[in-house]
Amino acid sequence: MAGYNTIRGLRVKYLSADPANPENGQVWYNAGTGNLRLEGIALAGSWASGDNLNTARSSASGTKASTANAALIFGGHKGSGTPANMNENESYNGTSWTEVGNLNQARQLAGGAGTQTAALAFGGRIDPNSPTATTNKWDGSSWTEVNAMGTARYLNNGSAGTSTAALAFGGTPPTTGKTEEYDGTNWSEQNDMSTARLDIAGLGTQTAALAFGGNSGSVTTATEDYNGTSWTGGGALPAANRRQGGSGTQTAGLSFGGLLASGSPNVTAVALVYDGSAWAVTGSLGTARYYVGNAGGTQGAGICAGGLTTGAASAVTTATEEFTAPGTQIKNISVS
Q1: Among 273, 297, 253, CA closest to 43
Q2: Burial (CB count within 10 angstroms: exposed 0-12, middle 13-18, buried 19+), residue 111
């Protein structure tokens, strides 16, 4: 039988140990272990349990430019009691959540942008079930009210960017495709989304954002890319979904949880990764949920916190999960 060298015309490197930085697809013989080795075996992304939030909530907002060990989750809905809307703000250091300065205005379904020390909360639903255009800016210790959005609305997760370059899109009431940019001082209206929708998810930056899922009269699979000027169609979700979380970038995005258009129950734990053109299934959340608090400026910094685990408004959770992005690993090759 022809050997590898005959077939490929190449010799397999004979090494005393695995190379420090093997290339994807590289093959070598490890003399120390006596194994033929290959770099590039694909690994799915995965979720691991983090520390629980101090206060159970759904419909919270989070920082879209944060890291896995420096994030904020703010506002939300406590599930029962009066008032149900929340102003509590929690900071995450990768190990535990700490309660920090409250929002100026209790709200749920707001947009969120920025980092742990420079965040923005905008829009949302305030008591008694009214949309707001109020914008609050966080400096690492307290919130300050700044110029309001042009259109009051519940945004859910229709948001992206930083505290000085934020993006708001979609929302209700009424269901809209309006897009607004924030420059650190003022909001300005931009080109509308192609499909008006509520219960949307978003991620990315002001000039490279992604909007996906939601309800446009029916639950949708639609994905749209924003380039700082206009929206264009992107790769469709594999299943219609709404009220899910999102983190990452336009070319390395992450969608998790949500409410599917069908199924019993339709609360989902499914997570998807996006490569700039298509979505692919990755490792599922440990707890199926929707209306989640979410944060993360990169795919591998995705944080899912709180949410609703059933259709009941009282089914709020404190559970936190952290995402590890897909990668590759070295494996032994069997030649027997």
Answers
A1: 273
A2: buried
Say yes or no: 14 and 109 in one domain: no
- 36 and 181 housed in the same domain: no
**In terms of domains, do 36 and 111 share one?**
no
CA angle 283, 285, 289 (to 5 degrees): 145
* Tokens read off for 30: 């490890």
**58 and 29 in one domain?**
no
29-86 confidence digits (pLDDT tens): 778 777 766 555 556 799 999 999 999 999 999 999 999 999 999 999 998 766 789 9
Report the distance separating Cα 125 and Cα 266, nearest Å: 24
Q: Indicate whether 17 belongs to any domain.
A: yes
Which pair of tokens denotes residue 176? 């809209």
Using CA atoms, how far apart are residues 332 and 336, in angstroms rounded to an integer?
12
Domain range for 16 is 4-43
pTM of structure? 0.86
